[in-house]
């Protein structure tokens, strides 16, 4: 355990030295590449204004997303009513989508537990 701590300290020291040496140049390059996104003047008031604009813009988009959700749900209902006419390709795509959703759920659970596999019977 002590050797791992020493190794971790060594890696952290190397990383901090790298950042100290190259961090300023990287910051300048990043700011130059993204200067079109920088608001002038860069003040706290401007940041507050932008955060409020983002919040209320997101709130204003809820009705549109709500309608899109119900349209998608109606489409799924129609597919379910006409499931006898469904092609094998469509069923395969739906099955793969469901499998992908389940896999992302499992991955999220594993990450949430700190990358441990306890509780699963593998």
From TrEMBL:
The record, for InterPro entries, names: ATP_synth_F0_gsu_mt
Q: Which GO terms describe its cellular component?
A: mitochondrial membrane; proton-transporting ATP synthase complex
Primary site of residence: mitochondrion
Keywords from the UniProt entry? ATP synthesis, CF(0), Hydrogen ion transport, Ion transport, Membrane, Mitochondrion, Transport
* Organism superkingdom: Eukaryota
User: Where does it reside?
Assistant: Mitochondrion membrane
Q: Which GO terms describe its biological process?
A: proton motive force-driven ATP synthesis
Q: Name one GO molecular function term.
A: proton transmembrane transporter activity
Q: Name one Pfam family in it.
A: ATP-synt_G
Family, per the entry? Belongs to the ATPase g subunit family.
Descriptive protein name:
Mitochondrial ATP synthase subunit G protein
Q: Which organism is it from?
A: Vitis rotundifolia (Muscadine grape)
